[in-house]
Amino acid sequence: MAEDLIARIGAALAEVSPSDRRPIYRRLSDLLARELRQGPAGTRLPSERRLARELGISRVTVRRALDELSAEGLVLRRRGARSAAAVRLEKRLSSLTGFSDELRNRGMRPGQRWLSRQVVLPAPSEALALDLAPAEKIARLERVRLADGHPIAIERAAVPLAYLPDPGLVGDSLYAILAEGGTPPVRGAQRIRAGLMSGRDAELLDSRPGAPLLIVERRCFLADGRPVEFTETRYDGESYDFLTELQPQNGTYQSEMA
Amino acid sequence: MAEDLIARIGAALAEVSPSDRRPIYRRLSDLLARELRQGPAGTRLPSERRLARELGISRVTVRRALDELSAEGLVLRRRGARSAAAVRLEKRLSSLTGFSDELRNRGMRPGQRWLSRQVVLPAPSEALALDLAPAEKIARLERVRLADGHPIAIERAAVPLAYLPDPGLVGDSLYAILAEGGTPPVRGAQRIRAGLMSGRDAELLDSRPGAPLLIVERRCFLADGRPVEFTETRYDGESYDFLTELQPQNGTYQSEMA
DNA sequence: AGTCCGGCCTGGTACATACCAGTCCGGCCC
DNA sequence: GGGCCGGACTGGTATGTACCAGGCCGGACT
């Protein structure tokens, strides 16, 4: 068991490509993550000292890799006992994978249908969210998100024109365009609430007025704190949900039931 | 500025109480967190080397503290430039504060009304979620959560009897009881979806049938992976929402719009 | 005044060492 | 067989050092 794992990881570490800029600890944590995902929960890892010795790296570097895995919830660590594969949990809501990747993870085919991509005056909520000067225009992108050809969400994104002068340029990914323009979002915040479908919602989502909605408002920021995007997404509540994991904090479990 | 900050932190580190079991890095990160929360976003911290020198600790320890702050989204770090206070974001959904604390943060008074606390046979979903043997009973706790005296959520928790032999013992906090019994949950997962109120929901929540609900299912685990709790909470969708932040990962921003 | 470059400062990675707190397991005793 | 204890092993904390990649700022030059 442990011999096989160490041999596989050692071989993978030894044949790293020159274009791979990941530090050792990142490479090790990625390799260990793959192993952990393929094995049963509860599997014990080799000790830190053994990994360090047999892989020819420092124990501190091994610990750094395990710190990453622990932060991602993939290992459970306890002083005096070897680290073990954690019970496997779903992806964290706070680090949502791309919408398309998320659907693929669920075995579905992603798609989209553009409703509009235009330069407009902002709605009051958009102006407020984006800290806009009076009469400042925005790029607004509206589309229906599909899963296996079925509509599951209506998405409306607003971006200041300074960052997206031509909304027509956006293909699949707004973020790719923003990154190319040198203004990648680095942080964001979301509000999740429940609502009921309007007539328009129902029409676009092939549902009925009054059906449940999950409404997500998202605001994203540049590295210097300026808001770069404000998006509202209305998910068909009968077709979609969010999964998230709960992390211990400061050795104490924080919970709704405190 | 930096002199004041270093003096305050140095003084606080020097007068630590013997009962304080936190390691140095944790103490430093807690102290820095408090400073960062009280100052404007964008404020620059002293360099790692200066903090280490003037506080009389190792730079590696300083880095460890800053790693924690970075993971919590309180600082932005960039090679070659001093770390800065990040734009302040709301609490992470993945580390929900206690329900009561959350309400207090919103300036509301928390409360509750017990519907039942009893030993029962589990519903199929509960049996599945808790990996129960056939005919194994559970403790089930059902209550309405109040904010300023108004009902906002219906909560139904199921716990295997092995961990909670007497549900009547639960006052405000199920988790406190579990911790006292030596079986504290250390991890969990949640599913968030939208729904519509039933007649019973509407009656308990002073609303109307068909009104929107935010439904949260939570499953929590012991350190060894055994499930210890399965809870469904039905929030009045017109009174409550979730706030969450988005984190960069691996230097690349993950997003729904990828 | 504007631009460029070099030096210094900054954060990031990796290594090594020492020591402490906790866990596990085998051996011994009842 | 069961319980206890000690030793070996484990993870956790803290320190120090070396070096690299990137950013900032002041001085020189145009």
TrEMBL record, chains A, B:
Pfam families per record: GntR, UTRA
PROSITE patterns cross-referenced by the UniProt entry: HTH_GNTR (PS50949)
Top-rank taxon, per record: Bacteria
Alphabetized SUPFAM superfamilies for the sequence: Chorismate lyase-like, Winged helix' DNA-binding domain
Originating organism: Histidinibacterium lentulum
Protein name (record): GntR family transcriptional regulator
Classification via InterPro entries: Bact_HTH_transcr_reg, Chorismate_lyase_/UTRA_dom_sf, Tscrpt_reg_HTH_GntR, UTRA, WH-like_DNA-bd_sf, WH_DNA-bd_sf
GO terms (BP aspect): negative regulation of DNA-templated transcription
UniProt GO MF annotations: DNA binding; DNA-binding transcription factor activity
Keyword hit for DNA-binding: yes
Keywords: DNA-binding, Transcription, Transcription regulation
The UniProt record lists the keyword Ribonucleoprotein: no
Every HTH gntR-type domain range: 22-90
Entries under Gene3D superfamilies matching the protein: Chorismate lyase-like, Winged helix-like DNA-binding domain superfamily/Winged helix DNA-binding domain
